[in-house]
Automatic annotation (TrEMBL):
It holds the Pfam family Dioxygenase_C. It comes from the Bacteria. This is Protocatechuate 3,4-dioxygenase subunit alpha. Its EC number is 1.13.11.3. The gene is pcaG. InterPro entries: Intradiol_dOase_C (IPR000627), Intradiol_dOase_core (IPR015889), Intradiol_RC_Dioxygenase (IPR050770), Protocat_dOase_a (IPR012786). Belongs to the intradiol ring-cleavage dioxygenase family. Keywords: Dioxygenase, Oxidoreductase. GO terms for molecular function: protocatechuate 3,4-dioxygenase activity. Residues 43-201 form the Intradiol ring-cleavage dioxygenases domain.
Length: 210
């Protein structure tokens, strides 16, 4: 009789493991403030741009909504964007006035909004050589989402660039394209853009398979 684990691993069937580690786990490790835990001295969070960053300072806010129309209050979002010149800053350093990478999360208070403090990105060249409209890449992690979702945020006041963007125009339906367009707002004299992400159902956000 074979003892447990005595057979070669090549003969053993590998069991499924959980790919879904969002829920409370991602917040405990990566969104400490949202989980109600003490924050670290050095944290990759939602302040992607600080004073001194080149470009137009903006805030981006939104919610995450499920297929029932209810707020997802523990979603986690990662953002990746170009700087004002349309270049990605690949070296992350908290001392820099701008970093291309940031993280945010919805919460159980303040209307369950996620937010980013950043600068408006410049146009990035597409593989075809044609410029893409200014945008922010977003990855969404949430309960019930086994593999994170990839989407983009475009800007309402970049209509001409949006109409010519080689990625955005690949979406055939103009109505569906609108799910990626953030609305411009002005709050206390500051520019803010709002994008609500709908995971399922009516008005579902366009997601990309990168």
């Amino acid at each position: 009789m074979n003892q447990p684990n005595s057979r070669p691993s090549s003969e053993l069937m590998l069991r499924e493991t959980a790919s879904q580690t969002a829920g409370p786990y991602v917040h405990i490790g990566l969104a400490l403030a949202a989980a109600g835990n003490p924050t670290r001295d050095e944290e990759i969070w939602n302040e992607m741009a600080r004073e001194g960053a080149e470009g137009e300072q903006i805030e981006v806010v939104g919610t995450v909504i499920d297929g029932n129309g209810d707020l997802v209050r523990d979603a986690f979002i990662e953002a990746w964007q170009a700087d004002a010149k349309g270049e990605y800053q690949r070296e992350f350093d908290l001392k820099k006035p701008f970093n291309s990478f940031g993280r945010t999360a919805t919460t159980f208070d303040h209307g369950s909004e996620w937010s980013l403090k950043t600068i408006k990105p410049g146009p990035v060249a597409h593989a075809s050589g044609q410029p893409q409209a200014p945008h922010i890449n977003l990855s969404i992690f949430a309960r019930g989402v086994n593999i994170h979702l990839q989407t983009r945020l475009y800007f309402e006041d970049e209509a001409e660039a949006n109409a010519a963007c080689p990625v955005l125009t690949r979406i055939e339906s103009p109505t569906r394209r609108q799910t990626l367009i953030a609305r411009r707002e002005e709050v206390d004299g500051k520019v803010r853009y709002r994008l609500d992400i709908r995971l399922q159902g009516e008005g579902e956000t366009v997601f990309f398979d990168f």
